Amino acid sequence: MTMPPQDYYLGAPLWALAAWKGSLFTPKAKPAEFLEQYAQRFNAVEGNTTFYATPAAAMVERWKAATPETFRFSFKFPKEITHKAHLVNVEVATTEFLQRLAPLEQRLHYMIQLPASFKPSELPQLAAFIKTLPKDYSYAVEVRHPDFFTKAPAREALNTLLTESHIDRVIFDSRAVHAAPKLEQATEEAQLKKPRLPVQLDTTANQPMLRHIGHPVQVDNEPWLLPWVAQTARWIQAGKRPFIYLHTPSNNDVPILADWFQTQVQERLLISSEIKK
Predict the structure, then answer these.
(1) pTM of the full structure
(2) Is residue 4 part of a domain?
(3) Which end of the chain has less Cβ packing within 10 Å, N or C?
(4) Spacing of C-alpha 247 from chain mean position
(5) CA atoms within 13 A on the CB side of 31
């Protein structure tokens, strides 16, 4: 994979996958070297690790040392805050979490991933939570309750809240993985875990985030991703700096898929530039 783009963020759902040794990583790379080598090829990563546990202070310092200032971690808020408490009475936990990650400074970009049980009637809780967040960082919100997609008032209320708060709404696209046959365990597990929700192009701030859950066969992702290539180019041309996170059931081929995606985006931007001349 070539070096990361400069006009948008491109990443994977994780940075430590042993299957990438010999391709993304050097053949003899040690786990402690994975992040540094990952950051030489990608400029962002989803931070799923923080969803399950707040990292130790020493670990945060290692992450900082392993990445350049231009790198971005889209860390998820802990599940105790988002999934168990539904953002209620979480001031202490939120402060402790943010303070622990604070040494990463401008590398921080947070994802507030809400469970399917978080209903439109709970939007005041999200609004109150957003008001407590420091303005030093950027944020994106992911919702999974069907009413946010199928009920116009709920969709509009969420988008209005995020727009007024300058917070991006995560665009979640799992169509490719759900279109795949259940030929392997990883695909079957992904289909069970990843929700099937309508894909809506709701852009509420300046760093739109796409989380694309791909097909296990690389070439079969192309018809699903080509529209997102075009949309990514349009976002960039509009002055936005999107986050694009590519998943596959096993994630083994994500670096190859990302390289293809990056090439397609840069080619489209070049063509657009030539047309304008």
Answers:
(1) 0.95
(2) no
(3) C
(4) 10
(5) 4
